[in-house]
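Dissemination and training. As part of the outreach component of the grant, students in the summer workshop were shown how a complex can be specified as a set of sequence lines and then modelled as a single object. The example used during the hands-on session is reproduced here so that future cohorts can follow it. Participants entered these lines:
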Amino acid sequence: MDLLDPEEFRRQGHLVIDFIADYYNSIEKYPVLSQVEPGYLPKILPQSAPYTPEPIETILQDVQKHILPGITHWQSPNYFAYFPSSGSTAGFLGEVLSAGFNVVGFNWMSSPAATELESIVMDWLGQMLNLPKSFLFSGTGGGVLQGTTCEAILCTLVAARDQMLHQTGRQNVNQLVVYASDQTHSALQKAAKIAGILPQNIRVIKTTKATSFALSPDSLRMAICSDVKSGLVPLFLCATVGTTSTTAVDPLKELCNVAAEYGIWVHVDAAYAGSSCICPEFRHFIDGVEGANSFSFNAHKWFFTTLDCCCLWVKDPRALTKSLGTHPEFLRNKTTGSKEVVDYKDWQIALSRRFRSLKLWLVIRSYGVNNLRIFLRNHVEMAKIFEELVASDHRFEVVVPRNFAMVCFRALALPKVEMVYRNGFNITEMISADDKRRNELNRELLERINKSGNLYMTHAVVGGIYMLRFAVGASLTEDRHVFLAWKVVQEHLDAILEDMGFNG
Amino acid sequence: MDLLDPEEFRRQGHLVIDFIADYYNSIEKYPVLSQVEPGYLPKILPQSAPYTPEPIETILQDVQKHILPGITHWQSPNYFAYFPSSGSTAGFLGEVLSAGFNVVGFNWMSSPAATELESIVMDWLGQMLNLPKSFLFSGTGGGVLQGTTCEAILCTLVAARDQMLHQTGRQNVNQLVVYASDQTHSALQKAAKIAGILPQNIRVIKTTKATSFALSPDSLRMAICSDVKSGLVPLFLCATVGTTSTTAVDPLKELCNVAAEYGIWVHVDAAYAGSSCICPEFRHFIDGVEGANSFSFNAHKWFFTTLDCCCLWVKDPRALTKSLGTHPEFLRNKTTGSKEVVDYKDWQIALSRRFRSLKLWLVIRSYGVNNLRIFLRNHVEMAKIFEELVASDHRFEVVVPRNFAMVCFRALALPKVEMVYRNGFNITEMISADDKRRNELNRELLERINKSGNLYMTHAVVGGIYMLRFAVGASLTEDRHVFLAWKVVQEHLDAILEDMGFNG
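and obtained this result:
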């Protein structure tokens, strides 16, 4: 039995490619959200590893029979939950090539192509986003592929921390303060905890509906001033372009101006929305990025690149490498010594790293900038369709303005107007009825929709309002899926209202 | 143009599988260590992204022409550098399936199969390693797949740190001390820096040739006592089974006993050598692991699983989840609330995670425990062959005892005995000639060998001795490659001696 016999590899590889192609062909027949109960798999699989080999055909049968029912189908065209993990043939094939070569590109020498292609592709992408030269290798900065935004934030935060402590002394770590809004991703909290920032020094600044839940520069300034007065040291701001709950956009320019006065490192987390900024009409969302220290977005979210692939650019790579660099003897080599090359191990948490740039390279080349823009615009257009459908039904409302391809909406629980009157309610009163009951209604609505298996959405609670998030971005989604989704939403509201006694 | 058309996916998928199979078929024709110069790729590729799409056939031609020359061929049978990244058809196919489904398994609900299969496979593997029940889900602990050992160490260190600071107060972070030997992987230093441990509180305890560069429990105790006297707080010990430089094995039992007296968290880093412990005859190397708090090994090193896949077990998962848990509203769901399920996002740095357990599952099922042991034993046997070849040539020596499938050796620079006399040297003097000159010789020897492209080895410097590391573990390596490698080593020494004037 051979581990890597080329002909057996070829035979089994073709089987698995066909298995996945067949899966995509039939993906709509599965409930989008897995319907299994906790503990379903241990009941099926053996309790210990097999002693003797099993053929790939048997294993694939088991994947079909036992694994697929336990999968939530992120690639389904009816997947509208969280943010998309938009796959593509090119992104997939890049991952496959990378797995086939299976090189460990920790430094330049361990596989020069892995390093150089990454630098090239990060410059390509940076140009596509119209990032200032100060973030590009062709300028004075540079880009690196991380696994996730969590890692990107942790790396930049540690760089900022060490830069500051180098000036003020290590013993002052407990004075450092990190700033975010109440809409910032939990990744920031986690990164700050890992980096040893005191929990009470993580400022979570309140946002309001008045600013569409964007962080207000005035609120930031007030928080900073108060900390400075208390003898604390402002360190790091995580600004967001496209927040997780509602795709809110923090005003980068104004925030960076405030931060600059206090020498704060600004990281811009555009995990979801960053990719859309390759379209000229959306580029304004990152206006002001030139004032930030670092910028990241997830190509594995809405850029057709298989998980995981977070693109991070920094203005000052040396800040990263000073904090994260290691120089063990067993990795010494002439090119590293010459300082002519990038050793990406010093730009990230881990030593080992996969050849991730291959998948980005394949995505960009296989589709070209023009098609990539078209794909993104199509998703935004589909979200607009959904938004209009919501607006056309007076029983629903769009809760916050739509910025990208995600619509935040909720049922207002209005039965038909006639019924409201018949039941002695005033419509206006009903609309302003307490949000608690509305929240319960929408929770119930979402649960029924997801249980149906017809589509999958998730929720957010912002400003006390429970809302449904309809995030377009799965690569197989077409207009018809959006119309169908809306029909499902309406039908489930009908059913709930009927159950509540508003059955006409 | 479609992003994910199933039939186009199928067509292109088959092309790429054939491309990789052909690559494996012809892998021996490439120089193992890439011979390109820094900056080779920017000279070839365009400076900006293409506006229009390019066919996969063109891209694959470019991979062949431009990427392959820049790859160091980790899958080559003549690859003996660092530690192996031993690929396999099964490990590759698991990665491919995972990329095909492209689910984001941060919590149970986002894809129950991803979570449950991971827990099952980690218990399988734990049993294969004969880990105590206290590390398994079927006992009182649990296992999780991390990307790399660096992440595993950082996560456990942060858990240990927070547990300690919870007792002593957050302000005491600057008192915490982390222990390692001078052979411990640089991952520990990096993790400690990221976690905010003061650089001067990272104890790097010296090892010596007398203990084959294993950490001495007495030295550990002395270091701890000295710190305690200074009012510092001992926190964390990273013990290693199979160090990077020489595969030294720290005595776990004794070290854990010392650590237990002081309430120190012990992490066992068996990144490279852990997998071999599924063979009963090697299991003794991790005897004493029952006294540790956590244990990890890299399935992507020597367990035939595509990069990245680090297996981490902890006795107290709650210590991890207390430090790394986040509970944002947008991820709330019934199963998480019920606490019946594992949400692996709280066991790691990142939120997002790939379906990594698929590849481990495929490796274990496709080969079975019996074959996996045979593969590992074969590699050890091949290392033994090489060790004997080295020992049979009096111009070389094996520098430290071989534990696993890696041989540390060096040239002693002895020309033929007759020549020594002719040149007026005494053999004994020559053998004890100063190591500096020997080190230079071996550096030169390694550089010439790697430049030949016939094989690739790397070096280590331990106890002042520069040595060549011959690490067997590439999945395509057979006995003949080992014999050939030895021939290449001998020939290059011959050539050097000739250049030095010892040309008989």
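Residues 357-391 of chain A form the longest helix (35 residues). Students were then asked to discuss how this feature might be tested experimentally.
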